[in-house]
């Protein structure tokens, strides 16, 4: 790769593979699990969720990931976000990241929504002072003013997604990673999120987005990657990749 393209890369994925060890049989409890491990009775088999992936996401790209269920999209995003260490290969990210990956991750269901804003905000690296100054913006964007003192366990998944999106986008990171969270929000909230993503794109944020809604990928993204059964199947212009993927799904 040339020096210029390297400087332009926000995400550089180089021959990345992710292999999980899956137990061959179901165990009923943690105790049984440890007993079987100690007696060497529990066998594992390897499962390759991402197989030798290499690609680059450049500054200013709005990059979509598509593929059928279980093809490895979320695993790829978790590697990019630094949540998972790849079994092979390297993944480099240049800049700050706001990951919106697993709905509810980084939240405590027993705490109120307000307390969770501080907890999740701290996990994203924000100070208490910063969160005090921005909590009104977060609550305003999520439109959940009447529910701030309610424990998060009583929230619907759409309400959790509203809070998670509002916190992740309170600052403008170099890279915004959005997994299926948008799909659980209602139509109006999805539109509001898309508008905010578009504003961030205009100001230079690079976006990585997973969605089963190919029209959403076509609307938002310039480039797309289709992952199928753990392997990269097609990389290129978002409209072309979505068209090929739709054809395959039929
Ligand atoms: N921690 C894990 N341990 C074992 N297997 C895992 C783990 N995480 C993911 N997998 C497996 O890896 C494969 C890819 O999962 P992944 O969640 O990346 O798929 P996906 O493309 O995001 O699917 P979907 O569209 O359904 O969200 C699946 O078969 C899944 O069961």
How is this structure best summarized?
This protein is of the alpha/beta class and 250 residues long. The chain has helices at residues 3-8, 30-38, 73-81, 113-123, 128-142, 157-168, 181-184, 187-202, 214-220, 238-249, and strands at 9-23, 44-58, 62-66, 88-93, 97-100, 175-178, 206-210, 223-228, 231-237.
One letter per element, helices H and strands E, the order comes to: HEHEEHEEHHHEHHEHEEH
Beta-strand fraction estimate: 25-35%
What compounds are bound to the protein?
Answer: adenosine-5'-triphosphate
Number of domains: 1
By CATH reckoning, the class would read Alpha Beta
Average pLDDT rating: 89
For the record, give the distance between the C-alpha atoms at the N and C termini, rounded to a whole number.
Answer: 37 Å
Domain ABC transporter: 32-250
Pfam families: ABC_tran (PF00005)
InterPro entries: AAA+_ATPase, ABC_transporter-like_ATP-bd, ABC_transpr_TagH-like, Bact_Polysacc_Export_ATP-bd, P-loop_NTPase
Keywords: ATP-binding, Nucleotide-binding, Transport
Report on the structure:
The chain has 250 residues and is α/β, with parallel strands linked by helices. The chain has one domain: P-loop containing nucleotide triphosphate hydrolases (Rossmann fold). The protein contains ten helices and nine strands. The chain has helices at 3-8, 30-38, 73-81, 113-123, 128-142, 157-168, 181-184, 187-202, 214-220, 238-249; strands spanning 9-23, 44-58, 62-66, 88-93, 97-100, 175-178, 206-210, 223-228, 231-237. It has a six-stranded mixed beta sheet with strand order 5-6-7-3-8-9, sandwiched between helices. A three-stranded antiparallel beta sheet has the order 2-1-4. α4 packs across α5 (128-142) and α9 runs antiparallel to α10. The mean pLDDT is 89. It binds adenosine-5'-triphosphate (ATP). The site of adenosine-5'-triphosphate has 12 residues, from β1, β2 and α3.
């Amino acid at each position: 790769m040339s020096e210029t393209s390297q400087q332009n890369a926000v995400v550089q994925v180089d021959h990345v593979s992710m292999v999980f060890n899956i137990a061959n049989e179901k165990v009923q409890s943690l105790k049984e699990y440890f007993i079987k491990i100690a007696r060497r009775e529990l066998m594992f088999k390897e499962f390759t969720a991402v197989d030798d992936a290499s690609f680059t996401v450049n500054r200013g790209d709005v990059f979509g990931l598509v593929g059928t269920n279980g093809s490895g999209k979320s695993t790829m995003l978790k590697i990019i976000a630094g949540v998972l260490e790849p079994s092979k290969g390297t993944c480099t990210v240049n800049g700050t990241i706001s990951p919106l990956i697993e709905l509810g991750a980084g939240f405590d269901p027993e705490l109120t929504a307000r307390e969770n804003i501080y907890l999740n905000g701290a996990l994203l690296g924000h100070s208490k002072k910063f969160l005090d100054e921005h909590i009104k913006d977060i609550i305003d964007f999520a439109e959940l003013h009447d529910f701030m003192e309610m424990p998060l366990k009583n929230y619907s998944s759409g309400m959790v997604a509203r809070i998670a999106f509002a916190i992740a986008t309170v600052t403008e990171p170099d890279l915004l990673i959005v997994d299926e969270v948008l799909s659980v929000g209602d139509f109006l909230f999805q539109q509001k999120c898309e508008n905010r993503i578009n504003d961030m794109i205009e100001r230079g944020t690079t976006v990585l987005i997973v969605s089963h809604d190919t029209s959403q990928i076509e609307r938002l993204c310039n480039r797309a990657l289709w992952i199928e059964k753990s392997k990269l199947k097609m990389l290129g212009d978002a409209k072309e990749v979505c068209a090929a993927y739709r054809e395959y799904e039929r």
